[in-house]
Amino acid sequence: MRCLVTAGPTFEPLDQVRLLTNRSTGRLGTELARHLASHGHDVTLLRGALASWPITEARRAGARLLEFTTTADLRARLESLASAGVNAVFHAAAVSDFAFGRILQKQSDGELNAVQAGKLDTRGGALWAQLVPTPKLIADLHDWFPAAWLVGWKFEVEGDQTVALARALAQIRECRTHACVANGPAYGPGFGLVRPGHDALHCPDPPALYAALDSAKPATR
User: pTM for this structure?
Assistant: First the structure.
């Protein structure tokens, strides 16, 4: 089966030096790619340039690596693979929810003026940064890969496990995917694999999750 896995964070530049990103090592996606490749699947790993989890074992298992930077770059790379005969997409990347909009600085008269520079100068005092929501890439996976089995991730901080599982199911319905992995402080230790028409499957650790995802996907689509 031809599998596509995304892993690691996107980032959004403030200027040519500083950036906004998510806390993500890329471990889950990288190790999932290794697991799938080692079990005979044809795997392409789209991995954030800032991911720090070692890539050696995934490459040794046969996974092909493509890097991405910003959310727009990841979007372009996903679109470029839309006609590649992909059978399953595991979207584990930590996509930044925000990009920078206007950057403003207060002038001596109290007015806020837009500023732009290769490296914004801290000597000018405080800056006001507008954060603009980035597009939800998972919402487009169904259109890009209509014949593929699609899996998203839902990392929840607020609430409890019941809330996390409900939000994972809501993502499936809203984004027309087939499964979602719930995790984060709201879920608690481990992971919950959510699929419509099935009881949520608790996976106590990453290896159990990789095995569950591998076995849950259909043989072909």
Answer: 0.93
pLDDT digits (tens, 9 = 90+) for 51-107: 999 999 999 999 999 999 999 999 999 999 998 899 999 999 999 999 999 999 887
DSSP 94-119: B--SEEEEEEEEE-TTS-EEE---SS
Integer Cα distance of 74 and 94 in angstroms: 11
Residue 195 and residue 122 in one domain: no
Buried b (16+ CB within 10 A) or exposed e, 112-136: eeeeeeeebeeeeeeeeeeeeebee
Cα(30)–Cα(50) distance, integer angstroms: 13
| 154 lies in the same domain as 104 | no
* CA distances, 219 to each of 181, 201, 209, 216 (Å): 20, 19, 18, 9
190's torsion region: left (phi>0), alpha (psi -120 to 50) or beta?
A: left
In a domain, 172, yes or no: yes
The pair of structure tokens assigned to 1 is 């089966």
Based on the fold, state whether residues 122 and 166 are members of the same structural domain. Answer: no
Q: How far is CA 209 from CA 29, 40, 85, in A?
A: 11, 18, 25
61 within 8 A of 31, measured Cβ to Cβ: no
Do 68 and 38 share a domain, yes or no? yes
| Six token digits for residue 98 | 């925000």
